[in-house]
Amino acid sequence: MHEMTKRERVEAAIKGESVDRVPICYYNHRHDVESSPDALLEHILHQNQLYGWDLIKVMLRASYYMEAWGCTYAFDPAQGPKLRDYVIKKAEEYNNLTKLDPAKGPFGEQVATARRLGEALRGSVPYIQSVFSPLSIAGRLAGGNFGAEDETAAIRSFMESNPDALHHGLNIITQTLVDYVRLCVQAGADGIFYTTTAYGSFDVMTEDEYREFSLPYDIAVLEAANDAGGSINALHICRENIMFDLLEGCPVQIINYEATSARNPTLKAAAQKTAKALWGGMDQSQILPLGNSEMVAEQARHALDQTQGKRFILGPGCTNVNQTAPHENLMAMKNATLEWSKSRLT
After folding, report:
1. Across the strands, what pairs with 74?
2. How far does the chain reach from its first CA to its final CA, in angstroms?
3. For residue range 250-276, what is the model confidence (pLDDT) as tens digits?
4. If we measure between CA atoms, which residue out of 254, 267, 264 comes closest to residue 307?
5. H helix or E strand, kind and range, residue 192
6. Nearest Cα to Cα of residue 15 among 219, 190, 231
């Protein structure tokens, strides 16, 4: 088989067609650059030159959505945005949210990043823009901090005490995101990386609750990305005990999740449940940042064996907000994939 371009490789993997090697994509936060568009762009391009990943997930600071609606943050270069104040103290305050123009403010900054990245890459590497779900944003507007024990407490309370106000807020957020993802694709992004954060887990919600308070809004944003011409849209089902069977039906081409968690489906099991491409297989919490090169290579080979390299992109199943993988481990992941592909796909 001829050597594919990165775009050809990713598109073939999505379709379940033969690839010259399994595509790879690593992503993680770099808090020290995410508050500066210039520094972020420089970092993305440097990583692309250094590792040559087949797909770029544009890692934007996790606070930009909430900043746009008035939350304030202190920016810690080591640990990321730290919440100072939030705008939704009572459920009825969702009624005060107004639709934003995503060409301006923090949203506009990210659209500009998408455009500048596309101009720099000139089609050589597909890239997708990170987007939180409306329910995730609604929770953080109400003070939900990533990973905190009470991260979803406000949303849980508002679902019961004032669901109408919550739905109003979710509608306003969704309308803004629909316009935003269209602008991102028009700016050059190949699609979006859409994350459910804490809410796509049975540990947080029932399936019926998710169907009411998240799924219709998820579908609206994802359909907007597709309709705008995005052809590489990934759904990230975050956390453990995930609602895989429900969310598998979302209009995306790729599903990314923590397949290394014992409380989530294995890659082999997930591949039997869906015709969509899977992305993951690497443990971002322990093996990638803290393991040695052989441990990383062994885990990569295990993921590749489970999927037989079909409809698969190797990479982490989530981000690690505190630690990034060392260079030698990223190279071990890449080299193991190249070796596996050479022996099994040719």
Report:
1. 82
2. 7
3. 999 999 999 999 999 999 999 999 999
4. 267
5. strand 191-195
6. 231
The tokens 């797909």 sit on which residue? 55
CB-CB neighbours of 150 under 10 Å: 10
d(CA 312, CA 271): 9
Strand, coil or helix: what is 137? helix
pTM: 0.97
Calpha distance 274→258 (Å, rounded): 16
Q: pLDDT class for 172, splitting at 50, 70, 90?
A: very high
**For 33-66, what is each residue's pLDDT tens digit?**
999 999 999 999 999 999 999 999 999 999 999 9
Read out DSSP for 111-132?
A: HHHHHHHHHHHTTSS-EEEEEE
Question: CB of 246 within 8 A of CB of 215?
Answer: yes
DSSP 284-304: TTTHHHHS-HHHHHHHHHHHH
Smallest Cα–Cα separation from 164: which of 91, 90, 89?
91
CA 26/CA 10 separation, integer angstroms = 14
Q: Rounded to an integer, what distance in angstroms lies between the CA atom of residue 84 and that of residue 197?
A: 21
Rounded CA separation 254/27 (Å): 15
Place of tokens 């700016």: 187
Task: Give SS3 for 164.
Answer: helix
Nearest-angstrom CA–CA distance, 281 and 20: 19
CB 50 within 8 Å of CB 125? no
Instruction: Please name every residue paired with 80 in a beta bridge, in sequence order, or none if there are none.
Output: 76
User: Which tokens is 214 given?
Assistant: 């998240």
Buried b (16+ CB within 10 A) or exposed e, 226-259: bebebebbbbbbbbeebbbebbbebebbbbbbbb
Q: How would you classify the pairing of strands 72-76 and 80-85?
A: antiparallel
**Distance, CA of 237 to CA of 198 (rounded, Å):** 9
Question: In what order do the strands lie in the sheet containing 127-132?
Answer: 56-58, 127-132, 191-195, 234-237, 254-257, 277-282, 312-316
